[in-house]
Each structure stands twice: as structure tokens, then as C-alpha cells.
């Protein structure tokens, strides 16, 4: 760094020193605003929702099961928390192995050109906007899955396993399962991308050590590649989970929008993100709007928690002991 | 041609006949024929890029894993050609083990699991047997006393020298006939290097060892016979003491007197 | 003991499962793309680009309707977002990369990563509180702000990454010939990182261009063209993603068809961004 000689007013010194000051100040201001934005999000959501949170209590609102915007003006986010967690965790569970499998194929088995194509196709899934997947879901997927999957299962259960029927719920097509399946597909690219990167970074020596012991190709992958990439794979899974929790439009368009528990497998449900989008336009009452904002606040907290847990898991399980990716 | 009338001889364990390795069009190793004898240490020396490592890796078919690499000629272990198309490289690699320059314990496995990794590959599950083999291998590689109380700690928690001895134990656990060592001490400190050289002296009574080294003094310390490579060719192969005191080839003499590196 | 044959059988089973799995996962992608292209193509017409939407009755009566106001609105809102996001995103990225000693750096990094992982819907709510409430109306401006919140964390991370890839020796060389630090950054480092910066921007743009959730609370939507030119900034504005959502959930079949048209246009914009990004990378390699 140039010494700041404040008594040297020659043009070139000013150019250097003043230029540096102006430039770095500008940069810092820009950077700080990024910091403030995050804080502003937490603060504004809390304050906008404070009317509801103070009325029903922090935990009261969180665990309240009634969401009635029509008559009693009583609100609680519990159904939405359940909806968010169930769909997101189920989507994560369903997508994990397929996503890792694609990464294994791309990184370990496929010839370069094929790996390149598949990688780009998987990234394309992530690039398609949520609303586009939503419209396809409404007009193509839902009718099909209702007629080919839900109805047959529902009718079968009516005859052969009537106790199962209430759990299955109304096979209208829109609902928890549909939203979960669509979410599963949407979040695969994130796990796959990070897993793939991780596999590519496994040192050659690890693979060779496994081969030298007499391991077959799959055994090398199982013994040397996958364990070494643990951190990256888990990081990808956490990223996928974070995306699932925040996914709004496709879920809003496909989940059927029911605000009360219990949810059923086929039947309609709701998530925190979907209820905000679905009810925002109609929210006339202040308490209704405040409640939606408060739901946003709890969504913020859950997202934050997942992000922090993700960073922690990645650090703990990384084979290289640090930031593996 | 290679003059080897002074070789310390024994039963022939490994033999190559006109073995060549090509990377694409470039020959890394050209027409090497030599014999490696049972229960001895054979060293491969030569300047960087001379092909000694390339040749070593041909002996357990590691080049199969490299795209664009081609091996011609024969490599016989106990008379059978390992490059015979009917033979599976996976089975060869159990008979001919390898230790690499960088110690490579599997970082997510414990010390115990590292050592028995090769056994678990073939489905051996008997705990008693695994325990026995683990202890035997770690004793063979002079690591047992240091780690016997913490067999469950991760393989990566050891020092560099210990990790390399762990890698050796892992290779020995599957009871190979021949152990290939690719510059096993070049990333270690002098003390660890010493220990491993002592180890090699003891191990040779149980397993035939071939060691690639760029350190001439090491070759003269540990090996019975030495092969000198230069630009992909085998220049001279003879008893170690002869190579280092009175070599037959001029090139060899130039190398060991440090006229080129 | 497991025989070698059994091990190979297991190897082959795994490979088969892995290949099957890959095919099965990619099938929905193809189906979606095919449907969007087929149905969208059918619904495209000149009217789409020249007429405004109007009320549902317009469509039901067979009068010409289109999404011209949506297209323009999308351009306006995206442009506002870009103009806001680039300075902040690049600025934050420069701070992270070039001023690593600054005490706020680790905070900035953590918060930027956090912001990156936040659902877009929350960014829309933030823009609602910061812009819509004070202005008293939904507006294109607030929509731009909301999308900027989506864009700039991505740009910041890409910028940091691109700048960190430039070797330290280049900075040293600049300083050694007497250039002040700010000149070194502006005139040597940033141009050297051009490719990474442009790519990062394109990716951020593609992401934000497809987001509907933030816009539902900010630009809100409009079935008509604004009366005055200021209406694009000061009043509710229609954008492709948000309009696609409205059309899809509406009860009118004609609007459903237009939804497909909106979908193919949106998809085209995004894929175009990625193709341009690929081009930029290949060019400089």
C-alpha cells in the first residue's frame, strides 16, 4: 500500500492516494449494503409480521394450527411448517441416490463427450423456471398422474385396504405427493453438480491405491472415490434441501392449497412459501398481511438454519478436513 | 545388451521379455528384458523421465487404467504372462502389490479398516481372521507398537512416515508375491526414510521387492541387484555393488558419478 | 469369500442401475421441453407481441389479445434489476477478493452466501416493505429492486471467484510500475477477469429472469399497457414469469394457451442467456 502522505499535493500523488480512497470507500459502501440487505430482510420480516407474532406469541404463532382469514382472523403457521418440512425432506430423500448416481455415471463411467452432454442436461433442469415447470405440472403431469397412478391406487385401496384410504386422501391430482415429486426432480441438479465436482477432485493416488489392491472399477468408486467425496456430496444435498424449502411457484401451482392439517398423501396441502404467494393478493386485513409476513419470517429462520447446518456438516464430514469443495 | 554375469541369482520370480510401453505414439519404455529374483530387493535407478516408473507400473498392469497407454511384450510371473488376454488384471494386482510415492491411506477409514481393506474386497468377514491379519501386517511394517492402541482412529491422523508404513501394511495384508515400491520414501523425512529402508531389509525375506528410487545412495543401501534405465532403455542390470563400484557401461558410470541428473 | 465372478456381476448390476437411473431422471426434462415447445409454438402469434391482455372477456369474445405489455414490462423490470445489481454485486465481489484484510470481509462472505440461499419469495417481501409500502403502490421499480436482490449475491460470488482466479503476480506487476491500487484493480484485474464476470452476470440474469415469486408482491401485474411512460416505473407492471403464473391458474382456456406461449418465450430467453455464456467462455479460451 502506498503510504498516505497527506502533505504531498502533487497531482500524481493525489491521483494515487485520493483515487484509492474514493475507490475503496465506494467498494466498501457497496459491500456493506449487501450486509445490510441480509439484516434488513430479517428485521423487516420480523417487524412487518410483529403484529401477528405479538398477538399470537412467538411459539403460539409457530405452533398454531388454525389459519382462518375469513371469520375468526386467527392465524398459526404450523400446517405450513409441516407442509414445508414434509415436502422438502421427502424430496431430499427421494432425490439423493438418483442425483449421486448420475454424478457417478458422469464422472466415472461416461466418456467425456457423453458426460459433458449429461452434465448440461442436468443443469438445464435447474435452469427451467419454476413457473414453466408449474404450468407443465398443471396441464400435463397432474391429469396424467391422477389417472395413471393416484386413481388406480385409490380405487384399489377402497376395495382391498379401506383403512389406508383416509391416509391416501383425495386423488384429485393436485396435492402433497405431486408437489413432492416435482420438487424431487427440481432439486436433483444441485446434489449432482456438487457431487460431480467432488468426484473429479479425488486425487489420482487414491484411486490407484484401491486398484493396486485388486479392486474392480465399481469397488474403486465405492472404496476410494465416494468416501473421499463425502463432504461435497453432503454439501450438495444441503443445497438441494435449501432450494426445496424455498421453492415457491411450482409448489404453489401444484400443491392444492389447503391450510389445515391433517395432510394426506394424495390430498392438497400447503407450504410456507406457497401460502405467502397464494394469499398475498387477497390479504386485505392488516392482521392477515402481518401473518403472511410472519410466515416469511419463520421461513427465513428455517432457511438460515439449513444454511448453517449445511456449512457445519460439510466441515465435519469433509475427508480433507476443511473446505473440500 | 545387458551384461549381467554378476547378478545375485535365485529362483526367477518375475521376468519381462521385450516389454515396451507406449503413450500414444511416444515410447516410454523400449524393449526391456530382465529377470527379477525371488526374495531379493531389485532397484530401478535412472534420471527423471528415464522410464523406470513407467516400467514398474507395467508390472502390475497399472497402465490399463491410463487412457492411450499401450504395453507390448511379455511380463511373466512364475512363468505366466500377466498380459495374457485371458488373465484379469484384478487378480494380478493381488499377487503383485504396489506402494506409491505419496502415502495414501484412505482418509475416511480407520487404521484397522485401511489395513484389511484388501481382504474385505474379496469378501473376508471373519473378525478373528481380520484381526490376525491386521496385527501381522502392522508388525511386518513396523507400525504395530505405535498404533495398536488406536486402531480405530482415522488413517489420516498419522504422520507421513507412519502413513507410508500403513500403506505398506495394507499392501502386505493381501500377501502378495511381489511388492512394487514407487519412490516410497521421497516424500518422507530422513528418519522415516531410515525406518522404511530397515523395513525393506527385513521384508525381503518374505516378499520379493522391486523399488524405484531417484536416490542412488538408497539403491546402494537396500538392494541386491540394480537396473539402470536411461531414456526408456535398460542400460545395465547387475549386482548392486558392481553397478556402484565398477559398472560395465559408460552411461551407468556417468550417472552414478553425477555427471548428469 | 466372494468369488471374482460375483464381484463382476455386482459391478455390472451397479452400472446398469446407474445408467437406468440417469435415463429415468432425464426423461421428465425431455418431456417438459417438448411440451413447452410444442404447445408454446402453437400459441405464438403476431398478436402475442403486439396486443395487450385486457379483461378475460376480450379473449372469450375472440378479440385479439396478446402480451406486448408483458414483454415490455419484463424488459423494463429486468433492466432496472441489472442496473442495480451490477454495481452492488461487483462491488461486493471486489471487496471480498481485493480487500481480504478488511474486518467486515468474513461477515460479508457469510451474509452473501446466506442471501444466496434465501428463497426468492422473501426477497420479494423485502422489496415490498422497502419500496412498495413507502411508494404506496405496486411498481416496476419495486419489481426491479426485488430481482436485484436475487441477482446481486450471485454476481458477488461470481465476481469474487473470477477475480481470485487472476494470479497475484499481475497485481504485483501493476503495483511495481507505480500504479495506485485502484488503478490496478480497475485497469488490469477486472479486464483480465472479463470472461468470468460476464459469465457470472449472465447466469445471475438467467436466474432472476425466471423468478415469479418476488414479482408477485412488487410489480404485481397489469393487464394493460400503462398510460404514461412513467407508468412503467411508478405503477404496476406485467412481467413474463408472473403473468405465466396468473394465466396458468386462471379459469379461462384461452389464457391457458397464452400461458404456454409465455412459457416458450421465457424459456427461450433463459436458454439464450446460457448459450451466450457458453459462447463467451469458448471465445476467450
What is the helical fraction of chain C, as a range of percent?
A: over 70%
* Poorly predicted spans of chain C: none
How many H/I helical runs of chain C? 14
Beta-sheet strand percentage of chain C?
under 5%
Number of domains of chain A: 1
**SSE order of chain C, one letter for each helix or strand:** HHHHHHHHHHHHHH
Mean pLDDT of chain C: 89
- Broad shape of chain A: flat
The gyration radius over C-alpha positions of chain C equals 24 Å
Task: Explain what this protein looks like in three dimensions.
The complex is a heterotrimer of chains A (325), B (261) and C (285). Chain A is mainly α and 325 residues long. Chain A has a single domain, classed as MetI-like (MetI-like fold, Orthogonal Bundle), CATH 1.10.3720. Helices cover 75% and strands 0% of the residues of chain A. The longest helix of chain A is centred in the N-terminal third of the chain and has 38 residues. Chain A starts with 10 loop residues before the first helix and ends in an 8-residue tail after the last helix. Chain B has 10 helices and 10 strands. Chain B is globular and about 55 Å long. The two termini of chain B are 23 Å apart. Chain C is an all-alpha fold. At the A-C interface, α1, α4, α5, α6 and α10 of A face α1, α4, α5, α6 and α7 of C.
Short description:
The complex is a heterotrimer of chains A (325), B (261) and C (285). With 325 residues, chain A is mainly alpha-helical.
Observed structural traits:
heterotrimer; B: 261 residues; alpha/beta; six-stranded mixed β-sheet; four-stranded antiparallel β-sheet; 10 helices; 35% helix; 26% strand; globular; C: 285 residues; mainly alpha; 14 helices; 78% helix; 0% strand
Question: Topology, pairings included?
Answer:
The complex is a heterotrimer of chains A (325), B (261) and C (285).
Chain A: H1 11-48, H2 50-56, H3 58-63, H4 78-109, H5 112-127, H6 130-160, H7 165-168, H8 176-200, H9 204-212, H10 217-228, H11 230-246, H12 249-254, H13 272-280, H14 286-317
Chain B: E1 12-23, E2 26-37, E3 41-45, H1 52-58, E4 69-77, E5 80-81, H2 89-95, E6 96-99, H3 111-121, H4 127-140, H5 144-147, H6 160-173, E7 178-182, H7 190-203, E8 208-212, H8 216-222, E9 225-230, E10 233-239, H9 240-245, H10 250-256
Parallel strand pairs in B: 3-8, 3-9, 6-7, 7-8
Antiparallel strand pairs in B: 1-2, 1-4, 4-5, 9-10
Helix pairs in contact in B: 3-4, 3-6, 4-6, 6-7
Chain C: H1 4-43, H2 46-50, H3 56-60, H4 68-98, H5 105-117, H6 120-135, H7 140-164, H8 168-176, H9 181-192, H10 194-209, H11 213-216, H12 231-234, H13 240-249, H14 253-284
Helix pairs in contact in C: 1-14, 4-7, 4-10, 5-7, 6-7, 7-10, 8-9, 10-14, 13-14
Amino acid at each position: 500500500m502506498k503510504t498516505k502522505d497527506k502533505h504531498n499535493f502533487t497531482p500524481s500523488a493525489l491521483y494515487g492516494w485520493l483515487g484509492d480512497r474514493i475507490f475503496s470507500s465506494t467498494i466498501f459502501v457497496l459491500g456493506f449494503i449487501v450486509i445490510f440487505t441480509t439484516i434488513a430482510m430479517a428485521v423487516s420480516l420480523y417487524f412487518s409480521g410483529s403484529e401477528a407474532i405479538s398477538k399470537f406469541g412467538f411459539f403460539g404463532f409457530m405452533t398454531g394450527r388454525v389459519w382462518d382469514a375469513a371469520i375468526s382472523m386467527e392465524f398459526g403457521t404450523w400446517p405450513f411448517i409441516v407442509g414445508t418440512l414434509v415436502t422438502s425432506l421427502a424430496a431430499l430423500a427421494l432425490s439423493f441416490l438418483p442425483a449421486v448416481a448420475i454424478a457417478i455415471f458422469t464422472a466415472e463411467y461416461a466418456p467425456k463427450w457423453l458426460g459433458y452432454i449429461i452434465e448440461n442436461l442436468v443443469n438445464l433442469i435447474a435452469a427451467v423456471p419454476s413457473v414453466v415447470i408449474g404450468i407443465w405440472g398443471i396441464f400435463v403431469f397432474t391429469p396424467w398422474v391422477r389417472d395413471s397412478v393416484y386413481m388406480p391406487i385409490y380405487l384399489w385401496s377402497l376395495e382391498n385396504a379401506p383403512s389406508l384410504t383416509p391416509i391416501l386422501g383425495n386423488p384429485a391430482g393436485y396435492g402433497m405427493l405431486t408437489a413432492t415429486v416435482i420438487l424431487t426432480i427440481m432439486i436433483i441438479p444441485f446434489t449432482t453438480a456438487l457431487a460431480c465436482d467432488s468426484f473429479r477432485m479425488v486425487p489420482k493416488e487414491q484411486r490407484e491405491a484401491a486398484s493396486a489392491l485388486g479392486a474392480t472399477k465399481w469397488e474403486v468408486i465405492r472404496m476410494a472415490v465416494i468416501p473421499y467425496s463425502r463432504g461435497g456430496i453432503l454439501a450438495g444435498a444441503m443445497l438441494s434441501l435449501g432450494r426445496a424449502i424455498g421453492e415457491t411457484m411450482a409448489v404453489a401451482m401444484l400443491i392444492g392449497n389447503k391450510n389445515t392439517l391433517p395432510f394426506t398423501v394424495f390430498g392438497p396441502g400447503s407450504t410456507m412459501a406457497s401460502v405467502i404467494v397464494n394469499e398475498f393478493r387477497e390479504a386485505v386485513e392488516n392482521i392477515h398481511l402481518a401473518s403472511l409476513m410472519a410466515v416469511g419470517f419463520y421461513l427465513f429462520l428455517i432457511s438460515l438454519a439449513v444454511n448453517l447446518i449445511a456449512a457445519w456438516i460439510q466441515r465435519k464430514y469433509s475427508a480433507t478436513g476443511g473446505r473440500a469443495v | 545388451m545387458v551384461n549381467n554375469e554378476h547378478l545375485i541369482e535365485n529362483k526367477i520370480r518375475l521376468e519381462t521379455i521385450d516389454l515396451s510401453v507406449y503413450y500414444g505414439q511416444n515410447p516410454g519404455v523400449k524393449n526391456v528384458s530382465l529377470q527379477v529374483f525371488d526374495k531379493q530387493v531389485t532397484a530401478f535407478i535412472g534420471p527423471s523421465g528415464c522410464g523406470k516408473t513407467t516400467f514398474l507400473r507395467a508390472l502390475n498392469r497399472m497402465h490399463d487404467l491410463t487412457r492411450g497407454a499401450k504395453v507390448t511384450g511379455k511380463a511373466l510371473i512364475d512363468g505366466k504372462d500377466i498380459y495374457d488376454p485371458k488373465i484379469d488384471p484384478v487378480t494380478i494386482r493381488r499377487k503383485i502389490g504396489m506402494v506409491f510415492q505419496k502415502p495414501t491411506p484412505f482418509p475416511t477409514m480407520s487404521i484397522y479398516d485401511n489395513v484389511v481393506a484388501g481382504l474385505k474386497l474379496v469378501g473376508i468377514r471373519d473378525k478373528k481372521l481380520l484381526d490376525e491379519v491386521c496385527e501381522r501386517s502392522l508388525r511386518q511394517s513396523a507400525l504395530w507398537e505405535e498404533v495398536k492402541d488406536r486402531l480405530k482412529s482415522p488413517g489420516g491422523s498419522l504422520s507421513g512416515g507412519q502413513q507410508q508404513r500403513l500403506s505398506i501394511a495394507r499392501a502386505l495384508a493381501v500377501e502378495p508375491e511381489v511388492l512394487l515400491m514407487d519412490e516410497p520414501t521421497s516424500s518422507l523425512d530422513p528418519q522415516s526414510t531410515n525406518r522404511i529402508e530397515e523395513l525393506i531389509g527385513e521384508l525381503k525375506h518374505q516378499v520379493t521387492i522391486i523399488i524405484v528410487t531417484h536416490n542412488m545412495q538408497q539403491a546402494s543401501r537396500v538392494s541386491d541387484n540394480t537396473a539402470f534405465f536411461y531414456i526408456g532403455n535398460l542400460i545395465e542390470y547387475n549386482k548392486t555393488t558392481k553397478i556402484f563400484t565398477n559398472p560395465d557401461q559408460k552411461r551407468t558410470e556417468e550417472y552414478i558419478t553425477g555427471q548428469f541428473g | 469369500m466372494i468369488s471374482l465372478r460375483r464381484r463382476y456381476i455386482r459391478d455390472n448390476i451397479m452400472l446398469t442401475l446407474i445408467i437406468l437411473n440417469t435415463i429415468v431422471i432425464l426423461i421428465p426434462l425431455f418431456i417438459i421441453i417438448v411440451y413447452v415447445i410444442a404447445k408454446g409454438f402453437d400459441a405464438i402469434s403476431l398478436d402475442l407481441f403486439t396486443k395487450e391482455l385486457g379483461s378475460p372477456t376480450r379473449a372469450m369474445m375472440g378479440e385479439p389479445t396478446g402480451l406486448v405489455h408483458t414483454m415490455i414490462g419484463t424488459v423494463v423490470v429486468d433492466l432496472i434489476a441489472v442496473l442495480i445489481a451490477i454495481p452492488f454485486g461487483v462491488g461486493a465481489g471486489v471487496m471480498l477478493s481485493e480487500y481480504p484484510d478488511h474486518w467486515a470481509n468474513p461477515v460479508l462472505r457469510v451474509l452473501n452466501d446466506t442471501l444466496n440461499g434465501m428463497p426468492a419469495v422473501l426477497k420479494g417481501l423485502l422489496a415490498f416493505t422497502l419500496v412498495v409500502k413507502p411508494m404506496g403502490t405496486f411498481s416496476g421499480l419495486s419489481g426491479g429492486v426485488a430481482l436485484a436482490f436475487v441477482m446481486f449475491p450471485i454476481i458477488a460470488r461470481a465476481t469474487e471467484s473470477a477475480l481470485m482466479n487472476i494470479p497475484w503476480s499481475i497485481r504485483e506487476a501493476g503495483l511495481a510500475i507505480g500504479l495506485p491500487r485502484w488503478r490496478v484493480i480497475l485497469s488490469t484485474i477486472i479486464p483480465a477477469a472479463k470472461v468470468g464476470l460476464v459469465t457470472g452476470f449472465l447466469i445471475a440474469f438467467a436466474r432472476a429472469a425466471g423468478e415469479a415469486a418476488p414479482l408477485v408482491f412488487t410489480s404485481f401485474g397489469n393487464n394493460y399497457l400503462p398510460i404514461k411512460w412513467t407508468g412503467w416505473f411508478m405503477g404496476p407492471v406485467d412481467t413474463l414469469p408472473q403473468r405465466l403464473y396468473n394465466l396458468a391458474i386462471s379459469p379461462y382456456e384461452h389464457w391457458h394457451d397464452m400461458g404456454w406461449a409465455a412459457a416458450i418465450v421465457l424459456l427461450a430467453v433463459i436458454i439464450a442467456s446460457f448459450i451466450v455464456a457458453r459462447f463467451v467462455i469458448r471465445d476467450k479460451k
